[in-house]
# Entry
Amino acid sequence: MLPVYHNTLDFARQSDESDPLQDFRNRFLFPQHDDREVVYFTGNSLGLQSKSVRTALEQELSDWAALGVEGHFHATTPWWQYHKALQEPLARVIGAKPEEVVAMNSLTVNLHLMLVTFYQPTPERYKILCEAGSFPSDDYALETHVRMRGLKPEDVIVEIAPRQGETTLRSEDILEAIRNAGQSLALVMFAGVQYYTGQVFDMKSITYAAHHVGAFACFDLAHAVGNIPMKLHEWRVDAAVWCSYKYLNSSPGGVAGMFVHERHATNKDLPRLAGWWGNEESERFQMKKGFRPALGAQSWQLSNPPAILMAAHKAALEIFDEAGIERLRKKSEELTGFLEFVIRDVAGSRITIITPTNPAERGAQLSLFIEKNGRAVFEYLLANGAIVDWREPNVIRAAPAPLYNSFEDVWRFGELLKEALAM
# Structure
């Protein structure tokens, strides 16, 4: 149950004092505005830098300087197996087995790799179902894979949109669309959390429904990983991809990740694009012809890991792992609930929150539709030390990340929003 909120500085500070995660804030570096930390509510776009990252990067630079190429085998974290150092903490974040997870590439590269394997259309089973208004990279990837197989996107891709007058999807409508597609459905490709509205999708039910009609269920977790608890292995999700630079705070454009359920990850006959880092590890440096996929999600790797980026990722995950996804989720629900209360208190009907009001159906984000002077409100917030982001048309996304944001941040945001609306 969420607490009873009060839009006062005293309430915010008392909430921070009783927050068991409050000390984690001190492990991050905040941009400054007028010699004060900004209200940073864009962790859904780029997480803050942890103070431990610099030390982690300097270690890799020292190893490189001292060891040269031998750093691949003798660095503090040997570079050639860097991905293995991240398997267990990533598995805990997404609810997976370590062998089902690999840190590699960037998000859209991993999405393409996933589609090569899990979109295998036949004359009878060829359709893809996704949410309308998904992130552009997802749209582009689906479109190009459809065209590369000689099909037309308008004949293949089925988009599910909210009902007339609504801003988010109903779970029953998603499940009905899957049933209606039936035996023609090859792949359900959804976000875990919708980037624009912040809606959390019921991945467990979507996966079950997809499997019931014989389709694969795959997810883009860009806005879900590090934001909400998941149990991908238990839910029997086929595959998922994500980036690490949002809630995981692992550097701009940092190393992304991929999950492949063990029933697929152990199937060496599945189609995939091959690279030498996905080959059987014991033969990697023998330079033989003929790709022999390694066991697990690591067989989808293409190239050797970028050690500098992996070090930043590892440092961030160590902090995240210490905090724990369940504790972070509890604070997130309370923090986002307080943000909703404050916005409604200061804005009334002038702002429509298009994110679900049910805490179970949203992550650490509220999307605010401002019909009048929305851009001016956004620019005022930005100019006065509240970092949020703008999405057309007339939407401000505010995302209080529980790892480093405070209840006082939320109160300060409310005061600035009140000023912006009074212009």
Notes: The chain has a mean pLDDT of 96. The two ends are 36 Å apart (CA to CA). The domain at 9-49+325-421 is CATH 3.90.1150.10 (Aspartate Aminotransferase, domain 1).
